[in-house]
Amino acid sequence: FSDEPVDLECTTENNSHSDEASILVQVKPDVAPPTVESNIVGGELCIDEDGSGTVIFTATVAPGTDDVITQVQLTGLVASQTYVINGTTVSGVTSYNVDFTDGDPSEDVTIVMTPAEDSDLDFGTIVANATAADPSGPTAPSTVPAQVIVSTDAILDDSVQLGATDGVDATVVVGPVSESNSAQDVSLGISATAISPEGQTDGAPIDASETLSASVTLNGLPAGASIAFGAAYTGSATIPATGGAITGFADAADLAAAIASLEIQNIPAGFDGTITGTISTSATDTATGGVDVECDPNNNDDSDSQAFTLTITPGVEPPSVTSNNVGGELCIDEDGSG
């Protein structure tokens, strides 16, 4: 007979052991620099004189974060210009901050710029930076700003076209007109029209930055004759009797009316020959200079000219025959004479 051995544990308190410890993991809040972009390809915006332009800067947080945009800072504004920034009119400053409390990861800043009437003053190089924030508090600025150069392009408003086209036209041939036995006036019949070469105009008065001029040169003008405006013209322009600069007109329409009425007046009795001349017009919109940038230098000037020829042909007036006999009858006595 056998018996299995029996293991007896006097105590079980020394057969096992356990312990525990607490671990705290803290994630420190952080924020990544946001990005700023504009809607202007190439970073340059040109606004036409008497037009308007818009720049939109968009600030965006780094992807994969819970950051939000809290502010966009604008610098490079021109103090003498006026901007409408997200609906608020801003002037007299060179910098401006736009604050956001929406808690959005992307925010837009819209800047609308409208030059003062007839002004080509530029709006400067506008630079935009942004600030992003983590909901727990830390903030970070953008590291690469966005910038847009905003220029205003001077554009010529008004000019005067001579003839059928705004360029060189065929010589206007006046006459021939017959010689007269008394002084005579002859209209030149020049076509002159007020135009807007670039398709925009403000009308009268002429822009302060624009100059409009006209002149007449003459050849073969006989002594005593003159060039002048016809009776139909009622404006304020003047011209020297022997040609030269036309001055005193109110605007392009007034100048065109004056040119269209031009006459050679008081052509002496018995004169025959040829009088020639050229009428010229010129209009220029002058840029303000300094840091002013002209986007397109080809829309600031316009000129035109029109040559004319007036021919007075020789003429013979029918002679007159009179007698010394009153009543047209003469009676001679027989053996007399008469």
Any overview of this molecule?
Helix content is 3%, strand content 40%. It has 338 residues and is an all-beta fold. The strands form 5 sheets. Strands 2, 4, 7, 9, 10 and 11 form a 6-stranded mixed β-sheet that branches. The longest helix has 9 residues, at 252-260. It is rod-shaped and about 220 Å long. The mean pLDDT is 90.
Secondary structure layout:
Elements: E1 35-38, E2 44-48, E3 53-60, E4 68-75, E5 82-85, E6 88-91, E7 95-99, E8 106-113, E9 124-133, E10 139-141, E11 146-153, E12 159-162, E13 172-178, E14 184-187, E15 192-195, E16 210-219, E17 226-229, E18 244-246, H1 252-260, E19 262-267, E20 273-285, E21 301-313
> Gyration radius, to the nearest Å?
45 Å
Principal-axis shape equals: rod-shaped
> Could you estimate the helical fraction of the residues in percent?
under 10%
Order of helices and strands: EEEEEEEEEEEEEEEEEEHEEE
What's the average pLDDT?
90
Report how far apart the termini are. Answer: 213 Å
Largest sheet: 6 strands, mixed
In the predicted model, the low-confidence regions spanning at least 5 consecutive residues are: none
Computed structural class: mainly beta
- Percent in strands: 35-45%
Task: Give the count of helical stretches.
Answer: 1
Query: How many DSSP-defined strands?
Result: 21
